[in-house]
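hi!! sorry for the late reply, been swamped w classes. u asked for the two structures so here they r. pasted raw, havent cleaned anything up. first the sequence of the first protein and right below it the tokens
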Amino acid sequence: MRPISWHIGKAIGKLVGGKANSTDRKAPNQQVASVEWRMVNPIPEAAGKADFGEICGVNLGTCRYFLSGEKRVPILTGSKLSTVMIDCVALSSIVEEARRVEPSIPSRLDVWFDDAKFATAEIAGKTKTGRSPKYPLTISVDISSPRYEPVDYTAWIQACLDAGHELPKPEQGDDSLIAHIRYLPDGTVGAADVYMWSGACGYHVAAGGGDGQLHLTMVERKLRDDNNFVVTYSVIPGSVGGVTKDERREKLAGLGVDVRQFTTAKVSDDAAWVIEEFLSGVGVDLLSAHIDLDFSNPTKSGKAPKNVAIAQFSASPKKGAPLSGKVTIDIKYLKDGSMNMADIEFERKGITLIIAIRKSADGYAPTWVCMETDDMRGDLFSSQTRNVDARRAIAKALKRMQ
């Protein structure tokens, strides 16, 4: 869905006879109507009130609630919010400790719980085995930079049209903070997580309880160029993630993974086999192949992950071949060096054939076949499809792409 500013810009372009987002302005003597803005209320719209009783020492009697599916989620404000804010404030020192071990956390990302206007409560039910949950209650506090919207969208759009350009909006930040506080049955805090975002960078600070106090247990970060969160501090030995490819490789080697077996030559051979096995007859220039090989971080518990290596193989169309196209294959490898899965994309004439390959007891088999263009997608086969052969679906798709 395009933002409303896009539609406004397009409309302005049509009305003033120029391009969208035109900078043409009205004559100085023509005044533009002022636009009134209001801060967006972050509190979820209540669906009703209910008495949830007292859980883990937190009074949830006669609380407003909103619906998440069919589940009623209590909303804490006023005096009920004040009682849980005491536990939230204790997280401030945890975040400060995290900043000392992870200096990249911006100083402006302080735990500003004074700005909290509400909190929500998640009441856990029995486990699948019928036991009481370890944390019967989780309190969540979501604090983001203020957001604004026009009091009257019609008036704002008309004012933009009168001005001949989109009018400036109130400054809106991009910082946010979300805290989850998990209570033990006796009312003490057993664990907590704080997620902080500033632009494209995110940070996760985890704390665990012990002796009635919270202690820093883990810090994760995701910088602008990172694909996933990386553990940079942990009380669990060996679980700190490597920031560079070489660091990740060394950590897996220390966990007993034979990382020497994962080479670009191996990836090239495996990709060639995948193409021959599942895209037989397509024209791909294997000599043009570009290969990216990387290694996974250990799990948060310090163990080797299931997929220890990740590779991407891409090759250009083979000139003169009757069914030539670009091929991209994402491969994930197990500890023993075998492929666990391969996701194929074959592009030709604006159409992309997508094939998901997974390892099974009998070898490798397609679990999903799909064709897509810029504006449509159609599934040809999935693991739930009946009376359809995956390889016949692939052959049918390739015939359409000739």
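now the second protein. again sequence first, tokens right under
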Amino acid sequence: MEEKQYYILGAAAIVIVLMAVTITSYFPSKKETAIESVKAPEKVTEEVKKEEPVVIERKELSTVSEKEDNEKYSINLIKPQGLPSAIQSTIDTIFVTKKEDFLGRVKGLVALKDGEKYVLETLQPQAYESEKYSSVVIEFKESLGNGKPDSAFSTISYDKSSGKAVYLPDIFESENKNNEIYDYLSSYFQSMVMNSILDQARKAGGELSESDKESLRNSVKKGISANSENFLNWYVDNDSVVFIFPPNQVAPYSYGKQEARVYINAMISSLNNSKNGQ
């Protein structure tokens, strides 16, 4: 009899333990929940990081300043230095030419009044990077007393491994025999630049009249026509080529410079499809 009672008591104990385990599995402790809630975001963060594209960090350019100031004019130039020899030579030539042209124009002008001067200056040159290429962008500003300084850009891109200059056919892997690069860019940028200018106008003061919009469309169409001279200023930024359109090229001076970006791989793919008749 006693032996049966032991069996009954043992079975009851096992049932109680199983119930406790079952209840615990349905209601985890607060401590366990807290640990899980900390670990989960770490896994999500790791997955997101893997999907992010590689961004090449922009390097600071080494520069040297050149200043010249008198009663008639002021020159304040910031020139990049320490670049590959062929690139540095090209940039040195650009700066010499810009200065000579400015001095030639100022020579035939009378001195300004009220302490004003003719001015030639540069903004801080900018450097851009991709895995294969480096680009330098220089903006010159020239004021000849008309109240509106003119902006002009000089850009140069080069292969990091060779130190040699590269051009759009190199970047887009196209011989450009039939002007296909500029045909594509002209078509691709028309609506992009137009929409950007319209958005800029709205932010500045409201909607434009239909006649003003039509005037802008004609300006954009002319400024981004399929002509190599309209696409002289560009730089490589990570996976894209960014084109710079100075004031007055695609829109009136008041709109300032305009920029438009095209992805390199997308451009290469489109040019290849066009070449293959697709």
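hope this helps!! also noticed smth abt the second:
The radius of gyration is 32 Å.
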